[in-house]
Prior knowledge:
By secondary structure, this protein is mainly alpha-helical. The protein contains 15 helices and three strands. It has helices at about 10-15, 20-30, 45-60, 65-75, 80-110, 115-125, 130-140, 150-160, 170-180, 185-200, 210-225, 240-250, 260-275, 275-290, 300-310; strands spanning about 5-10, 35, 45.
Amino acid sequence: MNGETxxxxxxxxxxxxxxVKAIRFYADTGIVPPTDRTPTGYRRYxxxxxxxxxxxxxxxxLGIDLATIRKVMDREISLTDVAxxxxxxxxxxxxxxxxxxxxxxxxxxxxxxPQEMDLMHKLARLSEAERQGLTDEFLGAVFDGLHxxxxxxxxxxxxxxxxxxxxxxxxxxxxVELAELFQDQDFRTTLHGMAxxxxxxxxxxxxxxxxxxxxxxxxxxxxxxxxxxxxxxxxEAEPIVTALAxxxxxxxxxxxxxxxxxxxxxxxxxxxxxxxxxxxxYLSLLAVINDWPAPGSLAxxxxxxxxxxxxxxxxx
Length: 316
């Protein structure tokens, strides 16, 4: 053999750390054939056998089956192609494992029943098309009758979850909870009524999204008052209440009333309608799924505003 150093199967086992039985198996299957044999039939291996065994061991640890390994060794398929195929398969397995982990984490956190766990598992496994269909059906029900509203497209985009192709566990968990909210019929009815009432408030020439405008006005006007500890029924709250009423009058397309208290009841009803904890939760989950900044809860500002408005409505 041109002076090449040959090793016995025992030598090869000591050099590679594999058992004699494993090396004999690889030899019998043709993956690591012996380089030569002694006159008495004992196998002998050259230096290339060590390299082949190391490659075999690495491929096995990566989860590649023996039939594929043999094709790589025989150069029937390239190592690059095998690596690419198995990397794609691992990506799928990782996504599945993340889904399972997210569901199990949610089960532990929420103390779910077997039925709830089954539902969460099914929701986590939905395809992109199935998720989009569930979202479209929910938003279609919420905005039913408002598809011609100028703000419809922008508002629906702002409320649409878009789970990435390789979501983090917390995004999967958020999607599962959001999909459960989609199926809350009372929540659908509440949002549907809110959307229609706010659309009815819109001035004829106003092409903007009213929920956001009203919410942002409340947040901007009331947050400083909350931070300063201003009581909603105090004299210090008067200018804030007047400003909110004037803003609402502009939304309605009406001139600022001489006595803004005429609007207080209607505005208070709108803000009470918006002050649903499920709405806050929806927006928080949406931010996790879409990787948006976490929104601050509007509930304290809405509660303060409705209290301030109601306290200024004359009692009959």
